[in-house]
Structures are given as C-alpha cells and as structure tokens.
Design brief:
The chain has 18 helices and 8 strands. It is mainly alpha-helical and 517 residues long. The strands form 4 sheets. It has a two-stranded parallel ribbon. Strands 3-4 form a two-stranded antiparallel sheet.
C-alpha cells in the first residue's frame, strides 16, 4: 500500500494497482525512481542506441508507423520525426480527464519505463516524474483510443512534455503546454531516436484510470453488503423475515467460493450484537432470493474485482512496448504486448457483475416499499387538516432505482467487439479497453446510487420503527450516519449524493476499524 510518508518509490520490484491509484489521487504524493530503476532504464536505452547505430531496420525507430511500417526514415530526419509522431497522434477528442486520471496516466507510463522495455533515456523518465511532482496537468481528451495502445491520450501528455499541446492550470483553465512547463520550472523535453513511439505506445490510460476504478469497485463490494444487512434488519421488523441461516458458516463452507464467504462474514459482522442474532420462532423459514442468495451474487462480484486487480498488476509489471527492448538478447523485437485483452475482458465482465449486484438490490427496495407507503399513510392521517406532510424520504425513490437498474443492464452489453480495422487493414483487431473502462465507470456510478437508495430506504424504515430491538453494531453506525442526512430533508438528487458521500466515509471507516470486508 501507499506509504504514509507520501512518497511513492518506483524501483524494479512489483508495483500494485492500489498504490498507483492512491498516488494518482493524492496531489501531495512525491514520485521517485530509485537507483535500480534508473540503472535498468539506462541499460534499456543503451540497447536502443546500439541498434540505431547498427542501421538495422526497426519499427518506429527508423521506419514510419502503421501501414508505413516498411518505409524508412532518413537518419538525418529521425529527431524531427519524433515531434511529428507526437503531433500526429495528439488527436483525441471529448472531455478532458480529471486531475487524478491524468496523474494516473503519467504514473502508469512512468512505471512502464521502469520495467526496462521502452528504451527511453533516464532523463526522459525523470521528466515524467517531474510532471507529477510539480503539478503539471496535461489536458488529455478521454476519447480516441481503440485499446491497441492508448495512443491519443499518451500523445496529449507527450505534447506537453515537448512544450506543445495544452494543460489545465490549478483553476481548470486551459493553458499552452509550454506555459504549464514554464510555470512548473521545467524546460521542454527534446526527444531522441525512438522515444516518441515509446511515450505514446502503451496502455497507460486503461491501466492508470483502471486503478482508480478498482478502488471504487472495492468500495462497492463493501457497500453492497452494508445495504443488504440494512435490508435484512428492515424486513425482519416489517415482514417477519431476516433469516440469517443463509449467511452461516455451515452454508458458506459448503461451497469453495472465497468472495461468497467474505460477503456472508461481512453481513454477520455488521449485524453482530443486534437482535437478528437471536433465535426467533416467528421468522419465515426462507427469505426471497434477493436476500437469501445475495452472498453468492456479491461473492461472484468480489471475484471479478479480484480478476481486475490481477489484470492491472500484470499490465503494470509487464512490458507492453512495441518494439520491445529485450535486454537478454540486446535486440528490439516487434510484438503485440500492447494489446491488453485480459484487462479489457475484466472491464467487460465487471459491468455484467455490477448489473447482477443491482438486480437483487432493486428487488429488495421494492419489498421495502409497502411499509414505506404505510408509514406515509399514517403520517398523512395524523396531519389531517394541518397541511401537507414534509417527508424525509422522497416517496418514489424506488422508481429511480428501477431506472438505474435498467441503465446497468444496458451498460452490461459488450463494448470490446465493435472495433473496426484501421491503418490499411494492418491494425485489424483492437480491444477497445478504454471504451469498456468508461462504460464500467458509468456502471459504478449507477450501482452506487442504487445501493445508496437501498441503504436510505432501509435506514428510514428502521428509524421509523424505533429502538425496540437493537440494531447490529455495524448497521447501527450506518443508520446513525444516514439519520442526519434524512433529517436535512434535501431534494432527491442531493439526498442520494449526500448519502453516497456519507456511506463512503462510514463504510470505509468500519473497514479501517478492524472489520476487513
């Protein structure tokens, strides 16, 4: 994990996705390349210079790119060609990446340099560290990559590095890249042979922004168990349900699914110390599947999140460069490691998994609606003749939940199968990993809102029921936090957004308090 000293030291040891995400999200994080990394980068550069001096024809080093792969670049034009490569690929469109996403892109590429396959000079790697440490925020368009290297996003970074392109200042205003460098006390970088391609030919957007998505997905895994636990206590009070036997060690040990056991154990911890732990003869023998089989669904989702973490670690610690600098043979070798298929499929699968998390959540919300309606009728009767009731919980949040579920199902459709062939049919397959990631982020937004609605609805009903039976220690903490949100009586959009913020604080706080979910 990211050290408390706010320094991320990049060496040749394995790097993990969580560390990249935490460093990217924290502007105060200082990034340093250690001696081992700089030595490896230097050795990699020596191979490039040896191959260039030999006159051997190597893709992108002394040839054009794509369909021009067999056209030589004259030796006297190679340095000018570096600038041409950056300008040509700086063609992205759409909204600009956030500051955290831009930092994640630069950081992921910097880690790529440290693996020894890119052949950039040590001073080029240090320059990318300086971009992070001095707060330079390149304006990186989100759209333009088909997932066979994130060429356009990385070219936007490289353009600023050479004193061109655009950046965003601290106020979010576009400024010329040269001004952003000058304000940070940096001189534009002069690229040497082969460096332009090394700067742009990687999957640093999909990988870097993917690490940020990973942290959010892990929060969703915990939030789903919190919403479920709250709904269990609610149906126990209003509908005679809340059977905890499906969450028992006996059931969970009967099937070797780690995520499922973790989810069930999290629910038991949340409910520990509460009245649901007592044997209740009146309890229904079985709750609906949206309650009873939730650990199986949440567990499968957790497994998918684990697969994404593994795929990100593979990309971070691998060498996806083309051509690849192979230190063992002293050669530059053409290949296809820039095609992050495993990562793209992880993004794809998670959107489907999120839709499955959303389906039972929406069904549980629907089952909480009748008692909510009954409470509203009671309040209206009590207020007869004295005016309208000002409700703490908007009455049709269930409908919003249904709409969010429909969006989740729509977003679960495949994104990676639609890439056309490009560059005179030379680039005839792409992963579309960036599109899959962007759709995944939308899915995360939707499911967070859906689970927040479930948590709000359950908490409202538990507060209305009073304190006759004690809540679990974990669920009581959540209800207490959401009670203040409900008491403010904000509009529905403000209510859900406020709840999302508070749930992030309390859910992560419970985890840090010793309950690792």
């Amino acid at each position: 994990m990211f050290p408390e000293s706010k320094v991320l030291l990049i060496g040749t040891a394995p790097v993990h996705a969580e560390s990249i995400a935490m460093a990217a999200a924290d502007d105060s994080c200082h990034v340093k390349l250690n001696h081992d990394a700089l030595t490896l980068i230097g050795r990699s550069r020596e191979v490039v210079e040896h191959v260039a001096a030999s006159g051997e024809r190597v893709y992108g080093l002394n040839t054009l790119l794509g369909s021009g792969r067999d056209t030589a670049v004259e030796e006297g034009s190679i340095l000018a060609y570096q600038v041409q490569v950056v300008r040509y690929h700086n063609s992205g469109v759409g909204p600009y990446l956030s500051r955290a996403e831009a930092r994640a892109v630069i950081l992921a590429r910097l880690v790529g340099f440290s693996r020894g396959g890119s052949g950039v000079r040590p001073e080029t790697a240090r320059f990318y560290a300086d971009l992070l440490n001095r707060g330079v925020h390149p304006a990186i368009p989100a759209e333009g990559s088909v997932g066979s290297s994130d060429l356009t996003q990385l070219a936007a970074v490289a353009a600023v590095a050479i004193g061109e392109g655009e950046a965003l200042d601290a106020s979010g205003v576009l400024v010329p890249g040269a001004k952003a460098l000058a304000d940070a006390g940096l001189q534009p970088l002069t690229l040497h042979a082969g460096e332009a391609l090394a700067l742009v030919s990687a999957n640093a957007y999909s990988v870097g922004a993917g690490t940020l998505a990973l942290l959010r997905l892990r929060h969703v895994a915990r939030l789903a168990d919190v919403a479920l636990a709250l709904s269990l206590e609610t149906i126990a009070r209003y509908d005679g349900g809340g059977d905890l036997s499906p969450f028992s060690p006996a059931i969970q040990s009967a099937k070797a699914v780690d995520g499922q056991r973790e989810s069930a154990a999290a629910v038991r911890r949340l409910l520990s110390g509460g009245w649901l732990e007592d044997v209740r003869p009146e309890v229904s023998v079985q709750d609906p599947l949206s309650f009873r089989a939730a650990p199986q669904t949440h567990g499968a989702f957790r497994a998918s999140v684990g697969q994404l973490a593994a795929a990100l670690d593979v990309e971070l610690n691998g060498r996806g460069d083309n051509p690849l600098v192979d230190l063992e043979s002293g050669q530059m070798v053409s290949g296809g490691n820039f095609q992050p298929m495993q990562l793209a499929l992880a993004f794809e699968g998670l959107r489907l998994a999120l839709a499955h998390v959303g389906i039972p959540s929406e069904r549980r919300i629907a089952k909480l609606y009748p008692p909510q309606r009954a409470i509203r009728a009671k309040h209206l009767a009590a207020a007869a003749g004295s005016g309208l009731v000002q409700e703490e919980l908007p009455g049709l949040l269930w409908y919003s939940a249904a709409g969010l579920l429909a969006e989740l199902k729509f977003l679960a459709a495949p994104a990676t199968l639609g890439a056309p062939t490009l560059s005179a049919d030379v680039e005839d397959h792409s992963t579309l990993a960036p599109l899959a990631l962007q759709q995944l982020v939308k899915s995360v937004d939707a499911v967070e809102k859906l689970l927040a609605i479930e948590a709000l609805t359950a908490s409202y009903l538990l507060l209305e029921a009073g304190a006759a039976q004690p809540l679990g220690k974990g669920t009581a903490a959540v209800v207490g936090r959401l009670a203040d949100v409900l008491a403010d009586r904000p509009s529905a959009p403000e209510l859900v957004e406020h709840a999302r913020r508070e749930l992030r604080i309390v859910v992560d706080g419970l985890r840090q308090g010793g309950n690792e979910w």
